[in-house]
From TrEMBL:
Keywords: Repeat. It comes from Chaetoceros debilis. InterPro entries: ARM-like, ARM-type_fold. This is Uncharacterized protein. Residues 43-57 have a biased composition (Low complexity). Residues 542-552 have a biased composition (Acidic residues). Residues 1-59, 540-571 are annotated as: Disordered. Residues 22-32 have a biased composition (Basic residues).
Amino acid sequence: MGCTQSKDMPLNAHPTDGVGKARTKGKGRGGRKIVTVPTSPMSTDSNSGGNPNTNPSFSLRRVHIPKEISKISDPGERLQELLDVVNNKQKHGQGGSGSDIDDHVLLWGRIIKICDKYPMAASYVDANTRDTPLHLACRILAKYPFDSMDVNIGGNGGEPYAGPTPLDALRILTRSDPEIAGRVNRKGYIAVHEIIRANSPLHTDESILHQTEAINLLLAADYEASLEYLSRNDVCFDNKTGSGRTSASNSNNNSMKNDGADACTPLYHAVSSLPDDFFTPQGKSSPGPGPTVKFISAIHFPNPQMVSIPNVAATNHDSPLALLYRRFSRQFDTSEQFFPGDNSLPAVTSHRNQFKAAAMNTWKIILALLDPLLDKKKSVSDFYMVHAAVGMDGCPPDLLRYIIETRPEEVRQTNDRGRLPLHVAAAACGDSNADAGLIANNGVRRKATAMATSSDATSYSRYHFKFVIDELLYAYPEACAEKDADNMLPLQLAVESEKAWIGGGTKSMYDVYPDAMGRVEVEEFPRIKSALSFSTNFVEEREAEAEAESESENASGNSNSNGGGNNGKNSIVKEEHYDAIMMVQKPDANLGDVISAMWANEEDGGVQMLGCVAISRMAMQAHANDRSGDLVRAMALTAVTTVVNAMKNHPNEPAVQEKACGALRLLASADNYRDVSFAASGAAASIVAAMQAHVSDAIVQQEACTALCQIIKHGGPDRATVIASVSGFTALQNALGAHPDAAIVQKEACLALDALTSFPDANLPDLPGSQTGPLLEAARQRYPFECQEPANRILARLSP
């Protein structure tokens, strides 16, 4: 049962083998020297969509150009036909007379030549697709990335390439027609969409940087149109695969499906299309940003607020930061993977180092998304990551907690406005992201904010700031008494930003430092006054003081005021004090609200248990209504880590563990989808821990066994290896031994053991027959209908 490698974590992914294999220098046909460089190794696991380097279709070599094209009299039509032929990859030898375009050089050279002689050719628009030459040129660049060191031109003798490049062609197209970069095709997209939409090979660092420069060029050519496009969250990207990646092998100009089923932001699509980036600068002890960081930054910088705007698609309310943190967790988990045998071998250390580099590059992208101006500053010390994260509505709670835990000193540091992170979080609302270092056009900011506050727009909005403020108060409660440069306390800022009393974290700050409410003009904020009237005697004391000082007719006014407050008191009671526990039980509860309530009330076992029940109910409905599994996978993007967090916070609550195991069982089909990992998230380990902590609870054992079986079924030998490494065998044996009279436990334990031992390439310890054999024998004899078949298969695999 030994395992030499993991499906999702290929051991051969190192610079001298597999996907990172270096190409050798040598003589090509006809004595031409082919100048090549080692490629940036990219992961071949299912999370990164495979490695385009190994796909021969990603190559712009000899493309056959029909002779008829040269006879077209209209320069614009001739240019469009030339680009269309290359885009559709009519290779040499497919029939017809004509000439060949060798590599990028003659292609981009011909574009430049035509536009130099006939500038109006750049303004040509295809009658059917409404594509301009710029659309097609960008599409070709995305499909066949340019690398000056890999240009195969006879006679270059290994000298640096100095011929025409795609950027030269794009420059002359935009110069020939200054409005071309803002023209939309029939699908409603400008040319920059063609570079972002393709899952381009990105097979060398230079090709990534070349595409980054192309994006910057197009943004400069028509900034307003580009900004409008990058500010959308309803852009449709074609050819989505089950892993959430774009299939670049079928990305012709007629393949886009504008059905809105997977509409998202351009930023999210760019992030989801990136493979693992193993870039590590040579000769630097502190690596700078890799090419993928610059690529994402180019898309993000024009409108930084889009980082927290979720996608509009009904099946995908994910966000770029959430996706990146899942990827970071997976990569970091992979970098610590152990293999059988000697783990000091060069292949093993290379594998680990590559994924450490990938994790660091992903982290640098997260840094760039939190602060777009980071690269423009003198040093990283000019940027406080905690301030940026807490001021953002939409920062994933697990990422936020990781940032605060790894940067505890920043919780006590002030920014240029004298504000601690607690001030920033208290003041944050709608358009108040200035403290987080965000910049955006005012019109675009309002548009993005409107999208963010629409129905079901964010996954964490309802209770998000309660979670944020609670985390900050736990790290530094004294912050409640500190004033910013404007002499404002955090509680004052929270009230002025109209934070909810409980859901917005206002009550949390009041409980820590109630004296701060003395600086608030309560009469100006009816909801806060009403909440205070219900939960404290603050309002009565304030009014009594005013009455003693003024000797006015405050007695009747006081009564009227209290009466007015009572009009909203009942709603406050229902909405604030009991909202979380009541909301998660509603049949029509929104997943985003359930998720945010669970994170913000993680100490409440009732909310956690009922939240897991709600997630299970939604998952069952999704399975019943959507056979494709898209709805369940979309749920898992936020639900898996939430359920695991509930299990970790309530290890001694069998009801929480039982319902959590049931929820994870229903979400197991999403493993490996868009970097959802039942290993890196701790889901598999938490289930085994539940079994070990509640051996005598038959229901927990049943749900846990079923969940493990589903995880192994969908995750394959990798997940079997992970479960075995966290004492999964022992937990399943204990379930068999502790519940001999429970047929359902015996059945589910046998099925889980059967699945666990069914992969010969999994890295499993020997399963001794002397311990497990008697338990299996008893199970199949006592419950032959339920247990005989799986028990027979397991017994055949047992070691002596």
